[in-house]
Amino acid sequence: MSKFNKSKPYNSLPALPPKEDVESKKILLKTIKASRALGKLNGALSNLPNPNLFIDTIQIKEAKASSEIENIITTNDDLFETLIAEKKNSNFAAKEILSYKSALYIGLEEIKRRPFITTNLCIKLVQEIKHNKSSIRVTPGTALLDGRGQIIYTPPSGENTIRTKLANLEKFTNEYEKIDPLIKMAIIHYQFEAIHPFADGNGRTGRIMLLLYLKLEKLLDIPAIYLSEYIIENKLNYYKLLREVTEKGKWENYILYMLDMIEVTSHNVIPKLDTIVRLMDEIEGIIKVKKPKLFNKELLDIIFKLPYTKRKNLIEAKLGTPKTVGNYLMELERIGILRSKKVGKEKLYINHKLMKVLE
Ligand SMILES: Nc1ncnc2c1ncn2[C@@H]1O[C@H](COP(=O)(O)OP(=O)(O)OP(=O)(O)O)[C@@H](O)[C@H]1O
Ligand SMILES: [Mg+2]
Known about the structure:
The protein is mainly alpha-helical. It is built from 15 helices and five strands. The protein has two domains: 244 residues, Fido-like domain (Fic-like fold), CATH 1.10.3290.10; 68 residues, Orthogonal Bundle (Arc Repressor Mutant, subunit A), CATH 1.10.10.10. The protein binds adenosine-5'-triphosphate and magnesium ion (MG).
């Protein structure tokens, strides 16, 4: 165990792989459970008629939860309104959350082109999250504080030191094959947070990396999982466990925590997917009975892409002229499927039943 002093930059943070045992019997048993749950979720997602349809709605929730860790809380209403309405001066918190979501999308695009998790990818993510040109910390002075302002951890300092540690992390992530990918995921996350390469946004970047890593490992093809919610609910424990790895080289409880996060969140999402699919069927049925001429598969998809929609979305999907699609939306409101709401100069239409499932 390298010497650790919480007030001094931890430049001796050990390189990966860890020297300690990270495959205890307890960890291996939990890995099996977590893999099984994740496999079930991945299967449920691939059975959906159009799995991509749900990414937006589910990720908005994840983005909200992730940003909540930093206390950027906003209501679902504000969030969806900001996403869909072209409001100027819209809610700052909602914008923060949407930047988390766009960072995830950028990450997904990047790994499609280059299937690795790299330092440069992390920099791209944090820049999108922070809307600025953030990069590796160059000035000393970053420290993590507890609620009372006491230093609990001082990450490594010096750009070269940080880059060397990130290079080791990159190599471990993309090349090391002796550990199960789910255990590896937990180790990668710890190491990234301990390196703490950026002045801010390390938590959010690290959580997006988890999803990208699961995708690269083909464990979760679509990032339809609310990892952040679990972390928020168990935040104190999460912080304590990270510290135990640093201070005592105790990996077991931390890894078990991360595996439990995978298991619990997978179990939570599966029924929600089922509910959304059933709701889609139900609404399809209502439209077919009450307004058969209105029924159109693409229209149905659009009102399930996000719980809020507007004329422009329908026009962009080539469903008709502004006048025609305006009529579609009004008809859907008349039969009780959508509810309109004026935001600025625009009229938004809410799929209130879907909204309810998401809340
Ligand atoms: N003792 C610790 N050692 C290493 N990393 C830690 C420790 N305590 C917390 N962290 C990590 O630091 C993150 C916070 O860092 P930072 O403020 O840069 O990220 P953020 O994205 O702005 O915040 P948040 O994660 O709260 O949304 C936490 O999410 C956690 O992952
Ligand atoms: Mg922060």
